[in-house]
Amino acid sequence: MNNLIKTCLSILVLSLTIGCKETKREDTASNNETKEQVVPTDLKWSQRMALSEMHRFPDPTLLDFQKEPRWSYTNGLVLQAISRVIEKYPDSSLYNYIYDYGNRMINEDGSINTYKIGNYNLDMIKSGDATLYLFDKTGEQRFKKAMDTLHAQLVDQPTTSEGGYWHKKRYPYQMWLDGVFMAEPFHTKYALTFMDGEAQKKVLDKIILQFDLIEKYNKDPKTGLYFHGWDESREQRWADAKTGLSQNFWSRGMGWYGMALVDILDHFPKEHAGYERLVSYLKGYAEAIIKYQDQTGTWYQVLNMPEREGNYLEATGTAMFTYTLAKGVNKGYLDKSFMAYAEKGWQGILDQFISVEENGVVNLNKCCGVAGLGGDPYRDGSFDYYINEIIRSNDPKGTGPFMFAALELNK
């Protein structure tokens, strides 16, 4: 009898054990099913990043980790990059994503939600590129009216004594490298599309002047690198008392300028007297940045101080430099030898900064979250300032240029 009871108990325990194992197997299968591929891994890197951004930020008005919808350069940068992806790899879901931004931020009368023309902020012009893309696709007049407003801002933008745009009204007499990328490629396309004759020439002349002044004041003749900001008034604490220049060569600051050069050359008329100057500026720029490329293929946050403690290899500037070099070669502005540096930069991005989640979502890591000059709390442009700003993943100032670079290199 005892043996019979022991046998029965053994059978019962075995049954329960098998049942538990089967249940565990089912749970595992269920978990695997929830990890479906959000982003297919057999697509081009540009497509994968575009889809990853749409997955991270289903609402395009909240790009850049925002809690409330806003009209901003970061939205415009990512959406412009996505528009270029669509042009090469058509995708209705990506197009709808761009349209959703324009549809919700631009009203029927052409007014732009959250935008204030009186701030005279050059950053706010950048979303004009995505707006022009939508106007080309839809013909909706509200998009044209919104662009007219952005043009009107630039007509009245406060300037230095020589006509250089202040970066913002609240940053008087200051020219930053960022500003030419935010405003000038869009303004060039606007002038060529909607203006002609003397009015068009006046705008193009003013655009060239912005680059001429950056070359005159922000460029360091010794290294060929560019200082982030220049204050004509010399009133800012970050500005050198003699030169008015900020203290350091910030990677992304220079990245903005390089992208401005290669993007404006897509459209700027070759017959204009300033065209060849733009090409020469790009050539000098390219010669300078390759001298500071790290052996990994990437670039440091503060470009010329790789050995200084706290400095780090940074993703956004690296993506911008890689794009600028690749596009410069592809368009014939730069010698073909520069493509090797672009290829090395791309491999460095993959090796140092990219991670891919199980669902296929692509992350760009080690991005400087934000950096500027002045403001409140005050940003002094010191080495310590630049290396201590927040570092985060998937900053749009990196993901956008990553897509640009991937397209130029056909990766």
UniProtKB/TrEMBL annotation:
Keywords tagged on the record: Hydrolase
One Pfam family it belongs to: Glyco_hydro_88
Keyword Hydrolase: yes
UniProt-listed Gene3D superfamilies: 1.50.10.10
UniProt cross-references to PROSITE patterns, sorted A to Z: PROKAR_LIPOPROTEIN (PS51257)
GO biological-process terms attached to the record: carbohydrate metabolic process
InterPro entries, sorted: 6-hairpin_glycosidase_sf (IPR008928), 6hp_glycosidase-like_sf (IPR012341), Glyco_hydro_88 (IPR010905), PolySaccharide_Degr_Enz (IPR052043)
MF (Gene Ontology): hydrolase activity
Origin: domain of life: Bacteria
Record carries keyword Hydrolase: yes
Official protein name in the record: Glycosyl hydrolase family 88
Annotated organism of origin: Croceivirga radicis
